[in-house]
């Protein structure tokens, strides 16, 4: 029955169950069943099939947003200067058009608005659309009241300018920021989502594509490209950079911005000779080593015993022991159990990637490595393993970028 629910979620929001782990979906289903006072999965499936409202509630239970103001600050630094350049090019012919999707509880579109206001633009000189599939998080965004978890890092001077601390707790967003943003429900799988909408100068779609399977990723990326002005800019998440490079986009070339523009069309070249075009033979992911080589080429089918180079707790020693004893199903179950009990974890997704690699499921492994990188952008082992997969698929530029990031935490994406 869980398989039916997974297919429903995929058809509704494009969610690839492997990207979050079945345990996350199972936990959300149990949460909704408890809310409805149901204890029979088949009965819940019947309820789910006949209730669009319950389908939306399940979506919101599965999609747990992790966001805060000015996440990836280099992106917003770049946006400030790029927006001024674009505004000057337009000579006042129209306002700048920007969109944030998914916008979650509003931290990203608010960060966009504050960036543009701080750069000197007036509210009438730009328009920001903010879309999300979840009505619940949109209501939070409309309320404009944020807790301390939305403010991370040391650079919090913007909070003094744009928020008022409330006696009952939290910080209330200034109306001048809220009035810059148009919030609405939207689903990127809806073919009519942008019907009648002009193209955008800047699109923020970060850390969404990693939840889709590859065909859906490409489909959504093509939609975003069509909705981007010819000289516009697309901001994506760190784990999605290689996907953009493989699908007609070119990195801006500023470290840690994860900003891409449409790549110039390449002239057709004639290929000498009449032989068949050779394809790189896919290679398995490299083994884990305390000091991974810059370009690992092969790996034994068994997962080796070394633990990942992150803070190690007893559970991961147990998972390593199970994996190296050939009890990979138990190792996977232990990792998924950790996700279910403790929530998203880069280490858990990394181990699920290794276990998928050992089972020969390379696409699934890549999805898990991307998820690990999403949660921990400088996760060295996940970067290295994903780079090896990209290299075996012929994406040498994407592989090199990840290898550089794995070897040097200060390196971001480049052309």
TrEMBL record:
GO BP terms, alphabetized: methylation
Chain intervals for the UniProt region annotation (Disordered): 269-298
Keywords: Methyltransferase, S-adenosyl-L-methionine, TPR repeat, Transferase
Coiled coil: none
Domain CheR-type methyltransferase: 1-241
Pfam families to which the protein is assigned, alphabetical: CheR (PF01739), TPR_8 (PF13181)
Stretches with biased composition (Pro residues): 283-295
InterPro entries in the cross-refs: Bact_Chemotaxis_MeTrfase, CheR_C, CheR_MeTrfase, SAM-dependent_MTases_sf, TPR-like_helical_dom_sf, TPR_rpt
Molecular function as annotated in GO: methyltransferase activity
TPR repeats: 346-379
Protein's name according to its UniProt entry: CheR family methyltransferase
Organism expressing this protein natively: Ectopseudomonas khazarica
Top-level taxonomy: Bacteria, Pseudomonadati, Pseudomonadota, Gammaproteobacteria, Pseudomonadales
């Amino acid at each position: 029955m869980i398989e039916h629910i997974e297919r429903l979620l995929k058809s509704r929001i494009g969610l690839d169950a492997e990207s979050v782990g079945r345990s996350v979906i199972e936990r959300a289903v149990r949460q909704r069943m408890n809310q409805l006072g149901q204890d029979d999965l088949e009965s819940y499936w019947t309820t789910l099939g006949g209730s669009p409202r319950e389908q939306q509630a399940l979506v919101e239970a599965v999609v747990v947003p992790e966001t805060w103001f000015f996440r990836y600050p280099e992106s917003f630094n770049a946006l400030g200067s790029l927006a001024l350049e674009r505004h000057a090019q337009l000579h006042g012919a129209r306002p700048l058009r920007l969109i944030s999707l998914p916008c979650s509880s509003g931290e990203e579109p608010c960060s966009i608005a504050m960036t543009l206001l701080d750069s000197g633009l007036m509210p009438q000189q730009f328009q920001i659309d903010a879309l999300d599939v979840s009505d619940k998080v949109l209501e939070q965004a409309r309320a404009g009241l944020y807790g301390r978890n939305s403010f991370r890092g040391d650079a919090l001077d913007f909070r003094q300018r744009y928020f008022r601390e409330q006696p009952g707790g939290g910080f209330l967003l200034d109306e001048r920021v809220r009035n810059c943003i148009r919030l609405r429900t939207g689903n990127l799988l809806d073919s009519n989502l942008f019907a009648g909408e002009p193209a955008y100068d800047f699109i923020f779609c970060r850390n969404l594509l990693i939840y889709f399977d590859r065909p859906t990723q490409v489909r959504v990326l093509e939609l975003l490209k069509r909705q981007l002005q010819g000289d516009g800019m697309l901001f994506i998440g760190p784990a999605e950079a290689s996907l953009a490079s493989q699908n007609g986009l070119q990195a801006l070339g500023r470290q840690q911005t994860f900003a891409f523009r449409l790549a110039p069309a390449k002239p057709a070249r004639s290929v000498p000779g009449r032989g068949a075009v050779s394809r790189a033979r896919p290679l398995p992911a490299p083994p884990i080593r305390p000091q991974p080589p810059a370009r690992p080429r092969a790996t034994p089918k068994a997962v080796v015993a070394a633990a990942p180079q992150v803070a190690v707790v007893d559970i991961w020693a147990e998972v390593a022991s199970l994996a190296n004893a050939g009890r990979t199903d138990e190792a996977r179950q232990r990792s998924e159990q950790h996700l279910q009990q403790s929530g998203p974890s880069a280490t858990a997704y990394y181990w699920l990637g290794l276990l998928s690699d050992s089972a020969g499921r390379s696409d699934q492994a890549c999805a898990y490595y991307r998820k690990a990188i999403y949660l921990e952008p400088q996760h060295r082992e996940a970067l290295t393993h994903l780079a090896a997969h990209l290299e075996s698929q012929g994406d040498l530029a994407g592989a090199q970028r990840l290898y550089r990031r794995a070897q040097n935490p200060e390196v971001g994406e480049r052309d």
